[in-house]
Specification:
Blueprint (H helix, E strand, L loop, with lengths): L8 E2 L7 E10 L9 E11 L4 E5 L8 H12 L7 E6 L4 H6 L23 H13 L5 E6 L5 E10 L5 H14 L3 E4 L10 H7 L3 E9 L5 H18 L17 E4 L6 E3 L4 E5 L6 E2 L4 E6 L9 E4 L4 E7 L3 E2 L4 E8 L3
Parallel strand pairs: 4-5, 4-6, 6-9, 7-8, 8-10
Antiparallel strand pairs: 1-2, 2-3, 3-5, 7-9, 7-16, 10-18, 11-18, 12-14, 12-17, 13-16, 14-15, 16-18
């Protein structure tokens, strides 16, 4: 990351007590607006001394459970119930979130693969740079809320590691993961995102980071939304930054089944273009070598469909949604039980 200061600005004063709701102004000069800026919603709720928690969603714009969860929290949190500071960025990649796309329609970049960003880059790079250079130095704990977006569907899962962290941070990450209370916890294999993800950036800045994968299909799934809302509230209370009441629909946490994928063999990919016929469902236990899917080619219906088999055993945590697939699309990924 360069030492250049961010070109983004906001009228929010992060050191001021109170509830401030405004915009992060991202300079964007185009034909219809020569001196314009893009309005990225930003909220800071501060009350006295205490930890700072950064809540983000919309890093991928077609992932909605987190955006709904944080929008509700913004309206609900009262200053008197806060001890410290809560910074909320519900549409972190605003152009992508406004368009309902995984990547920005302006520069086609995936924000979760470009940290630490660039001060003078395209909009996605500038947003990543602001988060890492301005917001993360203020932050002690972070929750980055994701789901499967338009192409995947996940079981309600809390994500517990995105980069190498110290033993103490890992202990806190696991503790917060259990407090979150999702049915599943998942440790991605090493190298996911190449250190350029939001959670990896948080970890290298000394922050205790957790994330989620909640539902997907390009929609809001009620059960995953309930798990996400309850989990975020419990984590905020556990950290001590918020003493808000238990929500009317908030249910007790469940015991989290910890899962991992030690290698990328736990991920299954299309080996041909075709129509995806899944042969297993989310939550199924499968074995290495088991038939996972068939890929049909109606343009040549006399051909036998291509077969995809699992390269590992485990629980089906994630499944592709669209039927039309291309070679290289992720169809499933698995998790294996993990003792901590």
């Amino acid at each position: 990351m360069s030492d250049k200061p961010s070109r983004l600005s906001t009228r929010i004063d992060f050191e001021k007590d109170g509830k401030q709701c405004d915009y992060l102004q991202l300079p964007h000069s185009v034909h219809r607006s020569a001196y314009g800026w893009l309005p990225v919603p930003l909220v800071c709720i501060k009350n006295g001394e205490g930890p700072t928690v950064l809540l983000s969603s919309g890093v991928h714009g077609d992932e909605y459970e987190g955006q709904v969860t944080l929008s509700k929290l913004i309206r609900e949190i009262e200053v008197d119930d806060v001890a410290g500071r809560i910074i909320i960025v519900p549409m972190a990649n605003y152009p992508a979130a406004k368009a309902g796309l995984r990547t920005s329609p302006i520069d086609e970049l995936n924000m979760n693969r470009v940290f630490p960003g660039e001060a003078d880059g395209t909009p996605t790079l500038m947003l990543a740079h602001y988060m890492e250079s301005v917001l993360m130095p203020l932050t002690d704990y972070a929750l980055d809320l994701h789901s499967g977006g338009s192409s995947l569907m996940y079981l309600p899962t809390v994500i517990l590691r995105a980069a190498e962290v110290t033993d103490e941070v890992e202990r806190q990450v696991v503790e917060l993961g259990r407090v979150f209370g999702a049915p599943y916890g998942f440790f991605f294999p090493p190298g996911q995102g190449g250190g350029a993800t939001n959670m990896a950036a948080q970890a290298r800045n000394g922050i205790v980071p957790i994330g989620t994968e909640m539902g997907g299909m390009g929609a809001v799934t009620p059960e995953c939304l309930r798990v996400c809302e309850g989990g975020v509230r419990r984590v905020l209370r556990h950290i001590g930054v918020w003493k808000g009441p238990v929500g009317p629909d908030e249910q007790p946490p469940v015991e989290t089944r910890m899962l991992t994928a030690e290698t990328w063999e736990s991920f299954s990919y299309a080996n041909e273009d075709g129509i995806f016929e899944p042969l297993v469902e989310l939550g199924d236990e499968v074995e290495k070598g088991q038939l996972a899917a068939r890929l049909h080619s109606p343009a040549t219906p006399w051909r036998e469909p291509a077969e995809v088999r699992f390269d590992a055993s485990g629980l089906v945590v994630c499944k592709r949604v669209p039927g039309m697939t291309e070679r290289g699309d992720c169809l499933f990924h698995l998790g294996a039980d993990f003792e901590i």
